[in-house]
Amino acid sequence: MLELGKKQTLTILKRTDFGVYLGEKDNPQERVLLPKKEVPAEAEIGDELEIFLYKDSKDRLIATRREPAVTLGEVAVLKVAQVTSIGAFLNWGLEKDLLLPFKQQTAKVREGQTCLAALYIDKSERLCATMNVYPYLHTDSPYKKDDHVTGTVYQISGEFGVFVAVDNRYSGLIPKKEAAGRFFIGDTIQARVTEVKEDGKLDLSAREKAYLQMDEDAENIMQVIEEYDGVLPFSDKASPEVIRREFGLSKNAFKRGVGRLLKEGRVEITEHSIRKIK
User: Fold this and answer.
1) What pTM, to 2 d.p., does this model score?
2) Which residues contact 180 (CB under 8 A, 6 or more apart)?
3) I need a labelling partner for 45 at 20 to 30 A (CA). Which of 12, 69, 275, 276 fits?
4) How would you label 160-173 residue by residue, b for 16+ Cβ within 10 Å and e otherwise?
5) What is the pLDDT averaged over residues 82-104?
């Protein structure tokens, strides 16, 4: 059976002036063309070749020996070759670029940038890309609690948090309560596994455990205070929204960082400000 979007090993059934036809010996009526320029010089009828099946510019099924950057149902980082009136076209290693329709974009993409995308077959039986990769991610990761991982941000939800494709393969989420900081779709981030759910999905944090993170937070707070000429125009009683806007921190993390600076004698707190001690 010829399967669009997948790698297959097929047999050379017939040779022509413009290539060879490939198929399965027990079903020789179902066949696909491998263009002449991709046929090995020593190939003979009966030989087996590993190929990938896609559609050419005229929507005809065709074989290639080129290696696609992504196969059906899988996820990969692809570069945007161009943006047109019907969507973006992604470079995936084949002659014909891959269409990423506008409705399948979770964020607007630009020529030259990269995006995380999955390969699927649309209603017209064509291969297309989607940035809605959640259904294509796996839940059998090898990671456990407190492991450090790398992933790509692919969706941001005000209700749930920041969705991350760990290793561009596994399903991860930075829950809303842990999503301190500024995240953007397409960001590559480092994170820590805080929990492995029963279904195999990963809960993540972009921050270390509090006692390890405190020193870094304190230095970041001090840098912002210095940007305000040494006087921060609000105290540690500021609202969580103000703290998150200015520092990308939760209020608890902010108070821990300020506490570290107080203990070190680097700042003092007044009713309405935090001042650097010179």
Assistant:
1) 0.72
2) 206, 207, 244, 248, 249, 250, 253
3) 69
4) ebbbbbbbbbbbbb
5) 96
